Amino acid sequence: MRAPIGSFDHATPAPACLDVLIRPVAAAVRDWQGQVPADQLLYVDTDPGLADTAVFTEHYGLELLDTSANCVVVAGTRGGETTTAACVVLSRSRVDVNGEVRRRLGARKVRFATLEAATGGTGMEYGGITPIGLPADWQLLVDAAVVDTEWVLVGSGRRRGKLIVPGKAFAGLPGAVVVDGLGV
Q1: 19 falls in which pLDDT band (50, 70, 90)?
Q2: Which of 29, 40, 111, 182 is deepest in the core (most CB within 10 A)?
Q3: Which is nearest to 77 in space by CA: 42, 120, 108?
């Protein structure tokens, strides 16, 4: 199958390649309940040595600069309580951590989660964290621009491989809250 974006050699419906997906992502795909059919979630194999955005897009297609999203893990604190959340924004923007995220989490202070907290909490590899398969007790904030993008390239849970997902599917992920202005 040809990928709808990028110049990937081959795209495979995610349900047909659960064995190459990391455990939490494979479980989320297997138990998929979204309005977008699971077979519209596509897996593409990528070279982890090309993970840097500039090198990645030069190799797989410059249009990916406008259709790629990052999933960033943050920790908000207030009164000794910590709330962990994932934020999904298009790659060309950054997460409004000290504004929109802080307000949404009701936190006094928000910081990017440590490498250990992000990978340990998700069971995913750093540089490949995806909103598909996140822990059920985490909040998931998704920028409206991601939902409005026809096809979005995101991590697959590993540094090798990516998922290509219809943007509207992100609004249906467990616990997802679509936020205007999350990415600035």
Answers
A1: very high
A2: 182
A3: 108
